Amino acid sequence: MAFESHISQADRCFVEEDYVTAISLYTKVGDREAGSLAPLPLRPLYPQALEQERSAAAYDARAHAFLKNEDYLNALDDATKAIELDPSLSKAYLRQG
């Protein structure tokens, strides 16, 4: 399943308040480097920046799902990782509390 497909499916689960499944799907997006997903298609220029942006968005989305699931420690960890990858991601700062 492609990156966009996992994100879309996770987003649908989140909207339906199925946070456990959303967290699982966001985790699969984050685990793609370990071989669970096909590599992301990258722009010829700036491939690392694009991958970091997508990873930061996945961590931020999962942090939001953890918050909704009242798992505050994991939410904090993911929001912090999102900020490390993309310091301009303002929602991640909000999710840190």
Give the key terms.
single chain, 97 residues, mainly alpha, Serine Threonine Protein Phosphatase 5, Tetratricopeptide repeat, globular
What does this structure look like?
Helix content is 70%, strand content 0%. By secondary structure, the chain is mainly alpha-helical. Helix 2 runs antiparallel to helix 3 and helix 3 runs antiparallel to helix 4. The longest helix has 22 residues.
> What is the annotated CATH architecture?
Alpha Horseshoe
Low-pLDDT runs: 33-45
Tally the helices: 5
Number of domains: 1
CATH topology: Serine Threonine Protein Phosphatase 5, Tetratricopeptide repeat
Terminal Cα span: 33 Å
Alpha carbon gyration radius: 13 Å
Strand content: under 5%
CATH level-1 class? Mainly Alpha
Structural class: mainly alpha
What's the total count of β strands?
0
Shape descriptor reads: globular
- The CATH homologous superfamily is named Tetratricopeptide repeat domain
Q: The biggest beta sheet, please?
A: none
What is the chain-wise order of helices and strands? HHHHH
- Helical residues, percent: over 70%
Average pLDDT value? 78
Task: List the topology elements.
Blueprint: H1 3-15, H2 19-30, H3 47-68, H4 72-85, H5 90-96
Helix pairs in contact: 1-2, 2-3, 3-4, 4-5
Task: Give the gist of this structure.
This protein is mostly helical and 97 residues long. 70% of the residues lie in helices and 0% in strands. The chain has helices spanning 3-15, 19-30, 47-68, 72-85, 90-96.
